[in-house]
Each structure stands twice: as structure tokens, then as C-alpha cells.
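Batch manifest line 348
LIGAND: iron/sulfur cluster
JOB: complex structure
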Amino acid sequence: MVDTKKILFGLTLQELKQEVTDLGLPSYTAAQIAQWLYSKGVDTVEQMTNISLSARNMLQERFAMGLYAPTQVQVSKDGTKKYLFAVSQGRFVEAAYMPETSRSTLCVSTQVGCRMGCRFCMTATQGLQGNLTAGEILNQIRSLPERQTLTNIVYMGMGEPLDNLQETLKSLEILTSSYGFGMSAKRITVSTIGLLPALEEFLQKSTCNLAISLHSPFDSERQELMPMQKAHPIKEILEAIKTPAADRTRRISFEYIVFKGVNHSRTHANEIARILNGMKCRINLLRYHSLPNNPLQTPTEEDMQVFQQLLEQKGLITTIRKSRGQDIDAACGLLSTKMLKNKTLNTF
Ligand code: SF4
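JOB STATUS: finished
ARTIFACT:
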């Protein structure tokens, strides 16, 4: 029999208020449920002990919790862990946990697959299989074995967060609200290729940090790497993030994957400086790691350092991001693509 119950985990306070009103329960029950779900982190409705037994019974009849553990984990020798979550119909999403000395970051997915078609991305080869709900996005955090150690969250896993804007915004609301996880927006970064006008709505409604995937300052070259450049040109994206809504207190950064012999010349550095035109931001250089059946190549460490120097000479704050988990299926989408092909689930 198909379970037709609604899912409780991932509802905003407003949505919980509507649900308890529909059940004829007092509206303060919504805040109680939210506290149990997000702050106290219980696994079952029975554990919500300040709610009356009859109300709990009604809730259990109508709702399932919607919490589930990862089905597989790969552990790198550098401490990175890649978790696989089975969402539905043999589909998988990945979350990567990256512990460091002073912080621990989790990279979460917002979609199953992706339809943006970036040439360097394994997730793109899956196409879009579906959007995650806010609950499915948050479950990657809530059901992480190391959740108590987490300090930072990046929306940088499978999928384009702004292509699933409403569920992404709901998950951010629950993460940052006092009724939810109560996390500082300063510790959350949403990474996007810059879909318009979703980007403008995100900037209006969220104060979380923003990371824009740049990868080339030249329109034609960026379009070759990221076909969505045609519909969402970098010039218009830069205009959008110069507005007052973008400014506030959020941190803006640019992600720049370096491909051997493609996008790390002095001309590239000069053009990046020109288009950013003194903007207060940081550039994160990421070293591309070759993927199966993909002609793009891995740059050397020296290539990375030379390009960093070229950017810094232009006054741009530039960091080389450490490559993590190279001994496991580290590239985003690699593990889930394998699983999609195998359609096999192993447990750990
Ligand atoms: S890089 Fe991001 S936006 Fe581009 S195809 Fe991959 S998941 Fe989608």
C-alpha cells in the first residue's frame, strides 16, 4: 500500500500553523512541533511530550516524520566523507562532509541531477531527475552522523539551488529562524550559476552568503563551459549583485574552476579584474580534476599559483581551495551517477 501521509520535517512555522488549524488544534501547537523538529531534534511524534496524547495521535495519523539516514558513505584519507541519500524511485543525492581544524562544512544537494548542462560537471550527465523538497534538503543536515560538529553549510552539491528556488528558500528559512535550527546566515553559502530573475528574488528574501560560478570572464568561453550563460549572461548577473538587496551584510564570492590551458592566462586575470571593477568580493580558485569521458584537463599546482598571483596583482582577493577527497568519488555527482547506473543500494 502506498503511504499517502504528508511529511512533517521541512514544514515552515507558517505551514505548521495551517496544518494544526486544519486538525482543529490550538495554533501554539505549531511552535511546539517546530521546536521538537528543529531545535530538539526528536525522531518521532511520540517524543513530542508537551503535546497532548490525542493531538499526537492525530498528527501521527496524518504525518510521517520524513527523516532517513544515508544509505552509503565513502571516507577519504583526508577526513572528507561523502554520504549518499536515497530519495525516491532509486534516485540518489550526495552530501559531502569536510572537517577541518577549526570548522566543519557540509555541502548539500538541492536537486536530483541538474539541467544546467555545465560541461565540466558529472551531475549534469544525469539530467534533471527532480527537485528536492525543503525537508529532503534539510534531512541531509539533520541525518548526518556528524551533525553536532557542523559549523558551515554550503548549497553546492547536486543541482542548481535557484532552479529549485522556493524549496531552497524554505530550507534556508528553517535553518536560520529562531523557530528552526537558529543558525547564522553568515555560516551558510548558496552557490549558483546565477539564474535570473530567481537570483533577484533570492537576494530580496535571504541574507545568506552568495557564491557565483564564474569560470571565465569571456562570454563565449563561459558559454562553452556553461551553456546557461546564453540565457543568463554574467554581465546581467553582476548588475543584479550590485543592487542594495545584494549588499546587506552577506559575503559575495566567485567560484572559478581552473581548467588546464583554458582559463588561467594573464588575459583572463585582466578581464576578471575589469568586469568585477572593484567589487568587494573574494575569488575561490578550484582545481579541476579530470572526469571520465571529459576532455577538460587538470591544471598543475604551479598553474594554480601563477594564476592566483596574476589575480592578486590586479588587487583581487584570491584563495586556492584545497582539493578534498580525491581518493574517493569526490567530484559532485560521480558517486550518485554510478549508483544510478547500477541501481544498487549497499548499506553500511
Ligand atoms: S555545475 Fe552545478 S549548475 Fe552546473 S550542471 Fe553541475 S550541478 Fe548543475
